[in-house]
Write a sequence for this structure.
């Protein structure tokens, strides 16, 4: 399918124009049977579309759809297998969700097909470094991109912040050489990917330092095992931990938040706005 560059640009700019005005919510729609939080819940076209619409109604500014789990120990898919899950529902999500749509993939072929359906952002968990065609695919469509830090293995001994900076420098060089506009780039420290628990904490504490690289930061901590054990079964501990971490990240300068729970985040960010504004109400 041919890429409609004008339509992509319109949806892209609708999303990007919000960055810097308030915390931006990216709602998660997983069409996978094995995602760590909601695997299998939204695998059908009807369920995925209903969830996307609910997220937007609850406050999501963009919907991020993924068809391959990238949790530790996940089973990789081919591009054709990934597309078989996406193709029945992606066009409907783009036209009916009520917000821009992004695609969570590290495969250029999947991204190319999704861009042909009208998605406006590619969320690449390997930061343009896994598929050599990804950066050019994004540049040709004029799409936005999330460059996420990742590692093949976890090494608790390394300086994870320095490693992230080196990784981002390589990714940004790839993006520039392909012609991706810097105005369309977001960075993601990759919480939960190739990091020990302490390194995840270090990455979150480094938000002000990473923000100085000059790109908006997206934070994806939603319901992750980082918060496992909180709540003692009385409260939804992973949700509480997610909300607390995202509020702190917003205070430190992060701009976009990839979450499963849009309504709760919209309310929490409103509280943050009130208390951060002198005389706010």
């Amino acid at each position: 399918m041919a890429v409609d560059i004008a339509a992509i640009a319109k949806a892209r700019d609708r999303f990007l124009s919000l960055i810097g005005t308030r915390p931006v919510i990216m709602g998660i729609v997983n069409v996978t049977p094995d995602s760590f939080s909601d695997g299998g819940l939204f695998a059908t076209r009807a369920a995925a579309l209903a969830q996307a619409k609910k997220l937007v109604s609850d406050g999501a500014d963009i919907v991020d759809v993924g068809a391959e789990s990238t949790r530790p120990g996940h089973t990789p898919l081919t591009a054709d297998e990934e597309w078989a899950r996406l193709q029945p529902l992606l066009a409907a999500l783009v036209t009916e969700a009520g917000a821009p749509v992004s695609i969570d993939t590290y495969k250029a072929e999947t991204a190319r097909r999704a861009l042909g359906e009208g998605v406006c952002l590619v969320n690449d968990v390997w930061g343009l470094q896994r598929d050599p065609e990804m950066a050019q695919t994004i540049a040709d469509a004029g799409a936005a991109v999330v460059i996420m830090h990742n590692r093949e293995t976890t090494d608790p001994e390394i300086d994870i912040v320095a490693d992230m900076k080196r990784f981002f420098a390589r990714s940004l060089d790839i993006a520039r050489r392909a012609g991706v506009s810097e105005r369309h780039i977001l960075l993601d420290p990759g919480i939960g990917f190739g990091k020990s628990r302490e390194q995840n904490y270090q990455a979150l504490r480094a938000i002000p330092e990473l923000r100085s690289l000059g790109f908006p930061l997206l934070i994806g901590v939603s319901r992750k095992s980082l918060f496992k054990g909180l709540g003692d079964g009385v409260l939804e501990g992973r949700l509480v931990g997610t909300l607390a971490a995202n509020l702190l990240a917003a205070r430190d300068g992060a701009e976009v938040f990839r979450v499963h729970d849009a309504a709760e985040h919209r309310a929490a960010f409103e509280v943050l706005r009130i208390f951060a504004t002198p005389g706010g109400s």
User: Anything to note?
Assistant: Residues 43 and 274 are 38 Å apart (CA to CA).
